[in-house]
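Our working data are protein records whose layout never changes between entries. The record below serves as our worked example for the rest of this section:
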Amino acid sequence: MPGMREAFLSTMEQVLDEDPRVAVVLADISAASLEAARRRHPDRVINVGIREQALVGVAGGLALAGMRPVVHTFPSFLVERPYEQVKLDLTHQGAGAVLVSWGGSYDMSTAGRTHQSPGDVALLDTIPGWTVHVPGHPDEAVALLRDALSGDDTVYLRLSAQSNARPHPGPGLQAMRAGRRGVVLAVGPMLDRVLAATEDLDVTVLYAKTVRPFDAATLRTAVAETGVADVVLVEPYLAGTSAHQVSEALVEVPHRLRALGTRRDAEVRRYGDVADHDLAHHLDEASITAALKDFLRAT
């Protein structure tokens, strides 16, 4: 099965042939994969080179000219480096675009910190109006991409090499399992390991592939049905990125929250594969199981 990146590029090949409004803006990354599309549509496949600020600025200009730009590179070069352009050239100007990253928090584990971006979603959270999708399967990524292309708003699609075994189509928070001792909210590629970690635990498991806007109503309903306002948030990026969303959703309900994600207390400076980084950030199945049991034991 092709991964999310391959599914994205294949879909863009099709979309460029189908919709003359769509343009792709690249900064060398994936340019070779879209070379055939560039030959067919030289005015709508634009490679600015390793100039990430220009990458976003060009997309803003295309949007203001009536195009639907798709902007693609690694998250550290798409959100962090050109943050000012994302803030001003897109959001402040009211220019819609679809930012599509690949690499997650540490998929390129041996490339070093320059290619790792656990803080991308938290950074976008400082700018109003963004829709943020974190698919857990290539099929979900394609469906979310096509939906985003039909609009004119600002959308961030965060793709990863990590994936769940099967897709879970549908909007909002989806109930994967029902229980009575609390609610575990798994985001994107975290779902399968959360389901494995909670197999012997009496908890409700919710799945989110769209995190902004946040589906507060479904979370409130799940907490009410569970009868226990204990929530564990498991995200594939900076721990607690959506904690304020959970707290706001439950503002009228006394609740406890445990946020799991990439570490805030220390930077992981050692090289290793993705599994090594999962261990370092306590996002492997065993670590999630231990954290859940400790949290529920404290009830």
Observations:
- The CA atoms of residues 216 and 249 lie 5 Å apart.
- DSSP finds twelve helices and twelve strands in the chain.
- The first helix runs from residue 4 to 18.
